[in-house]
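Reviewers of the previous submission asked for a worked example of the structure-prediction workflow described in the proposal, so we include one complete record here. The input consisted solely of the amino acid sequence. No template or homolog information was supplied to the procedure at any stage.
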Amino acid sequence: MKFLLAALNAKYIHSNPALYSLKAYALRRDPAAAGDVELAEYTINQPLADILADLYRRGPDVLAFSCYIWNWTQIRELTESLHKLLPALPIWLGGPEVSWQAEAVLRGAKHITGVMVGEGEETFAELLAHYRGPDAGKTPKLPNAAAECMPNGGNPAADRTPRGQEPGAGLQEIAGLVFREEKTGEILRTPPREALDMDELPFLYEDLSAFGNRILYYESSRGCPFRCGYCLSSLDRQVRFRSMELVKKELQFFLDRRVPQVKFLDRTFNCSHARTKAVWEWLLEHDNGITNFHFEIEAELLDEAELSLLARMRPGLVQLEIGVQSTNPRTLEAVRRSADCGRLAEAVRRIVSGRNVHVHLDLIAGLPYEDLTSFQKSFDDVYRMRPHQLQLGFLKVLKGSYMEEMADAFGIISWETPPYEVLSTRWLSFSDVTRLKRVEDMVELYYNSGQFTHMLAALEERFESPFGLFAALADFYEEKGFFVNSPSRLYRYQVLLDFAAAVDAGRGGLYRDLAVYDLYLRENLKSRPDFAEDLSPRRDAILLFYKKEEETGRYLPEYAGYSARQLQRMTHLEIFGERAVLFDYRRRDPVTGSAWTAEVELERPGTAERSETGADI
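From that input alone, the workflow returned the following structure tokens.
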């Protein structure tokens, strides 16, 4: 018997921890089932025909999908087609996209056998036992569903049942299911399942071979104490923690293997001060100099001790994702979110000023009482906190959420299909939403990329607000047709130069220098951009600098023994008028990814002086 657990991830670098947890928990309960459970991970970018062919080739006896807003449309198409090929194949679903509307899903998808509702480990273990049957391991396995089709020219068997059991028999005894009774077609719901003790969940990463080049996700708690109306986590307010003894042991596993990044799945990691401090103190003491840990937190909850701990972290040890969503008090009240925006801003200011923690701030457009003017203020408030990334997202009216319940009252119109994103509200017209979408694109390309830091800083001086800058840039993009024909990564520098020429014509030379500086700060280009000054007249001075550096190592002592040619490949020397800046790409800022810089003098041999590191022009 083969029970196949399948997922469609958003990107290849992602994994689906739910599948691994279901399998690990079930096999801990019944090690004899090890040969009966398989995992299959795909991405939403793969052709559905290829995924369908692979699922069919694997020949499952039972199939289950992990469903989210980003993959539900594809899963719906896949399961419909797979059912046509294998009508006897039981197909189960689980995950947040189907848990809160299980009956509706089954009514709209007659080919689905049932839904595992809510927390799934114990439910799946019992469902697996149901399909394996009481004589599992003693009787020969039935041929798989795909194999049964072959003798009939690819037509599936009409009356196959798993391991001789009646379809649906015993399902009524498994808590946490919504399923269709086979004979009557009636949709039945079994009692809800009790929440698991977090220490009962197996550790997922004893074997890292399946996670090469992928982000590792780690869960030290489940549930959230807050009631934010746009989030399904608010429906599970029973916060449960994994014991600190286990957490420390498992974090040490990651550190010992020097994994690049671990992302905590905890919905609000710092909801407990004592626990937050215990984990961060432990990471500070056991830092391996490589591994990065990502946390989703509420910044206004941070106390002085926690802020002090963050200030002591190695640059790159931790990164923080902080949901601001809006700075409009009435909006926050309407979505049942209590936030002290002043305290939040001060906490973010202190963290960012330490230059050792990557900070990601979130905004949501389309919330109640937030019109274009109000959202512009929220944007400006958050932008001025100077996060390393600012995610301008849009309200998703998730099934089962408070926002879905209140959609009519707030005049919220959204897509009927995933991700159920807002189209308009009583306060935002569809034209407003469309305009904000264009602004979002500009923020993503020019701010969140981190590639235009100094150019943007200069441009901000010409606008009344940060939002005004990005709105004007969006208008420029639309006027030039760049939303249709998107510029290449390198050509975006030229686009921003053209935009600067249109809004600040008197400082063209400054913007060209800043474009060159920003470009080489991030990239060690072999070919010179068209907008950069021709340095061929300074070629001898540049070669002389590297020859002297080979001999003395005054600027790059870390690379003693390297030849001038090797040093020139590893670094870049740029000349701005009478100033020269050295860019070292082997010493990048672990928070921003920018090259290390130093200003040097080139005029006379033997007189170059090191002036500063991390220099900004």
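The chain has four domains: 3-189, 215-428, 446-531, 536-600. We consider this example representative of the routine output the project will generate in years two and three.
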